[in-house]
Amino acid sequence: MSVNALYDYKFEAKDKVENFHGMQLLYVYWPDHLMFCAPFALLVQPDMSFRALVDDIIKPATASHPDSARADFLKAQWLLNDEPFTPNAEASLTDNGIDHKSMLTVTTPDLKGMAGVGY
Amino acid sequence: MAVQNKKLNLKDKYQYLTRDMGWEPTYQKKKDIFPDEDFEGIKITDWSQWEDPFRLTMDSYWKYQAEKEKKLYAIFDAFAQNNGHQNISDARYVNALKLFLSGVSPLEHAAFQGYAKTGRQFSGTGARVACQMQAIDELRHSQTQQHAMSHYNKHFNGLHDAAHMHDRVWFLSVPKSFFDDARTAGPFEFLTAISFSFEYVLTNLLFVPFMSGAAYNGDMATVTFGFSAQSDEARHMTLGLEVIKFILEQHEDNVPIVQRWIDKWFWRGFRLLSLVSMMMDYMLPNKVMSWSEAWEVYYEQNGGALFKDLERYGIRPPKYQDVANDAKHHLSHQLWTTFYQYSQATSFHTWIPEKEEMDWMSEKYPDTFDKYYRPRYEHLAKEAAAGRRFYNNTLPQLCQVCQVPTLFTEMGAPTKLSHRQLKYEGERYHFCSEACCEIFEHEPEKYIQAWLPVHQIYQGNCEGADVETVVQKYYHINIGEDNFEYLGSPDHKRWLSIKGIKPADEDKNAA
Ligand SMILES: [Fe+2]
Ligand SMILES: [Fe+2]
Ligand SMILES: [Zn+2]
């Protein structure tokens, strides 16, 4: 479908990768941990390693959750844009196929959040 | 005009002052005078079929409104002179006003602009006059609301720069983008969006919480505004229904177009009202009714009857109403815990509900509160007591369409986010729900331009890279005064001193 307009209606997407000064957006969702109300929106370097993403960004972002200390994200189950995904910890985000505005979903099967209701 | 007959009867007056204001052009093409009238595909065969149930003319409009205004301002004056703010239920209530002033009053102004522009586009005089009067109403609403609430600005924080905040603050992009979407549509979509879907179908869910909320919490200034706007709203609602019936009766080709608009604008309105749901359940110290009760009465019952009535035109209820109906058990709680964790970036305070309030919620939400949400507050209270009041220090993903963080859960699966994503012209887009995703798919060219506050911060367009600088410099939220937890805030301390109660940590914080 297409917008109905009085003239040739064409505009730039506002969030193209070139607007982020060499960085890119990445979203990370940790199911069953709704203490964090929505997936995180992160600004990341495309050439950072997956391990650095986990250690330097995801760990601190999730630190306030009681499950965080026990979470071994590198050994957890991952989805990249809703598809099964096995990260290479030493490879860069780009080499892992993680492009601008991708979403990672990380499930920790033994950690299901608080109160038995995924909080 | 009939000069000898000095006093016109009402019917003649209406005819002269409205319908006779339109004429058939002779030296200009009608199409050039009303260039926006048909590009949306709506077919109007006979504008004279337009019924104006109020038959109000400008002269009586001015007279009537001026009288109302005089009374209204007399009450505002009395409220200020008597320090009316001291008689409210609790200072937590003022946070509802902060949300209203920054989230709703600017929409009244946007509505004024929208109706002024839209009214100009119709070749039918009845519709033009109705839009013109509503434009003036909405301008008045915006102004009188600001006057009603300005007294609070002298005594509480967070009310000092509402219009500026409306254009910039992350959660205020939800109401702002809602109206921008409507105002950039064609004239018939605008009326379907605002007059019908918002004013007619959903308006009670905005005005009952705020105006009855004001009454229950001793806020006479805002209550009085509510009363003075009531007769206007009655007109707006009637216009909303008239608009939809008129369009549907004009041509059968209009039906599918209008149906899609109803689907879209019901959903956009419902997402916007999620802010009201939390205000209703959490920000009113004296509760009026719960969000789920309000939804049942004003949407499920009233809306149900309405859509039954529209069936004969071939219109069915909004596509995703089942999702909205199911969400009534969860919405306010999911929203409040979101704002609780991002209070470092809000112009109002948040807090953990008191014990009696939680018991009220258990009663009002028997199937969900104790199971899903009470444990949240128990955890948050424990953390706060240990000196670790929870703030989420990472920015959230936002929905490309409604711009709310993608916090909503699947129907029937309240621990699973209802996130969706798609690719359009090589670019990825994320949504809070199937319904928002579908709105995008119909008009991708429009929503790819969305000014998403989180992405704007990351692009460096908000005067700083860290939240603190953005909040202070770009949003004009005064850190430590307007934002963070309510308990121990300057507002809280001021309230305790008004009430002659010493704060618990009286030595450190003697006012
Ligand atoms: Fe209004
Ligand atoms: Fe209105
Ligand atoms: Zn959405």
Q: Could you please describe the fold and organization of this structure?
A:
The complex is a heterodimer of chains A (119) and B (511). Chain A is of the alpha+beta class and 119 residues long. Chain A has one domain (22-107): Phenol hydroxylase (Ubiquitin-like (UB roll)), CATH 3.10.20. Chain A is built from one helix and five strands, in the order ββαβββ. Chain A has one helix at residues 50-62, and strands spanning 24-29, 40-44, 77-80, 83-85, 102-107. A five-stranded mixed sheet of chain A has the order 2-1-5-3-4, with helices on one face. In chain A, strand 3 (77-80) and strand 4 form a beta hairpin. The radius of gyration of chain A is 17 Å and the shape is globular. The relative contact order of chain A is 0.24. The model of chain A has no long low-confidence stretch (mean pLDDT 97). By secondary structure, chain B is mostly helical. Chain B has one domain: Ribonucleotide Reductase, subunit A (Orthogonal Bundle). Chain B is built from 23 helices and four strands. In chain B, the strands form two sheets. Chain B has a two-stranded antiparallel sheet with strand order 1-2. Chain B has a two-stranded antiparallel ribbon with strand order 3-4. The radius of gyration of chain B is 24 Å and the shape is globular. Classes of the chains: A alpha+beta (119), B mainly alpha (511). Chains A and B meet through strand 1 and strand 2 of A and helix 15, helix 17, strand 2, strand 4 and helix 19 of B. Bound molecules: fe (ii) ion (2 copies) and zinc ion (ZN).
